[in-house]
Amino acid sequence: MESRQGGIQSSSELEVVVKNIRFKKINTTLLVLPAFFATISLILLLIGLSTLLRLGITIIPYGERSSTYVPVLEEIISTQVLLWGSVVGLAYIIASIIAVYIVLRDIREHIYNSAMVTYYYTRGVDYIGALYYLKDMLNRSTLPSPITGLILTLLTSGVAYPIILYFTEKTIRVHAVLEEEAFFKKKRTREYTALAGVVDIALVVLTLGVYMAYMGYRLAKTFNTHIDTIHSTHPEPPKTLPQPSLEPGAWMTTSGIIGIFMVFLALSTIMAYVNLYFTPQIGLGLLLSALVVRRAERRLLENIVLIYSLLILLLLGGLFTGYSGCELYRGLYENVRELSELIRFLNVWFLIAFIFINNLAISISSTLPYIGGIGLVSGVFNAGLVLGVLSAIEERSIYSSFTILAYPHTILELLAYAILLVASSKFGVWREYVKLISIGLLVLALAAIIEVFTIIGVLGTPGTTW
Questions:
Q1: Is 147 exposed, middle or buried (0-12, 13-18, 19+ CB in 10 A)?
Q2: Rounded Cα gap, residues 452 and 412, in angstroms
Q3: DSSP string of 211-268?
Q4: What is the pTM of this model?
Q5: Angle ∠(336,342,347) on CA atoms, nearest 5
Q6: What share of the chain is helix, strand, coil (3-state, %, to 5)?
Q7: Is pLDDT at 13 greater than 90 in this prediction?
Q8: pLDDT surpassing 70 at residue 61
Q9: Cβ atoms of 237 and 322 closer than 8 Å
Q10: For 389, phi and psi rounded to 5 degrees?
């Protein structure tokens, strides 16, 4: 009798707690505002940096300037632009820190309260209430604490903000699915895949933070829609099955990724032509990695051919960018001249090793899934960039530079890069993974040997007639 009364009292206390719980929505402006500051800051910083690069000016500390030093007007303006860009960047860091702390605090509290409510509503159906309560608590544990999120955002100067947005929305969607299954035995919320997340981060980089505003908006909308569909009838359980939600990155088809890739290659050339410094390599690298993962189930040969074709486009994109912005990237010309003077003194085998190790450093990271393409894209794009600058400064036609694509060592290098990048899609299937990497390294070594003997055929033996 006493046990029964205790159970009734406990149930009554739980009912009071549940009925006193209130579910609140997230402020959309809070999540969109940081992107506004980030974009303005990046634009100002790129304009200031582009001016300094074009003028070939190194900012000299005040104490080291000679009495005859007179800064030109453009240097003064560009320095002021960089200063304002830094100030707005500080505003972005502060806004992102505040947003991260509040959002993580509110969502972690929501999942805890929601798990209690779900347990209360479903506790009469054998152990299902306890099961969903535990699942929700595990899901909640995947989110960093508000303080951890704050520290991460601060230490990375806001770089972690879009990444935290990704993990937060992923957690919200898992939470929504758990509650839909608990109440309706069906799920209507689509999952947020790592693949979609990689494309989202790539677009944040390529759009100078503009896309981050959409990520914040979508996160708030996903959460607030969940509140409306599941918790709008609280303290009564939900009665209406929610409508299917849109999967983030649902547009993300193979052709969509390729289209974005080509658009930003063209944009890079346009910005170089108007003397604006723009570095799309990180974003394009993430897109290539996402493309490889997306097509993991396709035939290997088909994937290698596709990646090889995109690497050719990437090389040409760098070539056009360097040719269009030769004044902006003139410093590369001097660096290449110094490097060419250095390798003249290497013998044949040292030169083969030098070229192979250089190409290996560019491509070996491409064997990592999701992020491996960043180093590879940077290497290929920068190679085209240098070639374009050399062609412009030496007053050669840009079309004459296309002949590099017909060189045997270029064909083999790009083929090796494509094989190594495709290998990342087999990460975890170790036999195929190691096999592809081994083939890629052999092709890369062969390319280095052929390149050195091509150089010898044109310039003569290293260290003698060069």
A1: exposed
A2: 13
A3: HHHHHHHHHHHHHHHHHHHHSTTTTSPP-SPPPPPPPTTTT--HHHHHHHHHHHHHHH
A4: 0.85
A5: 130
A6: 75, 0, 25
A7: no
A8: no
A9: no
A10: -65, -45
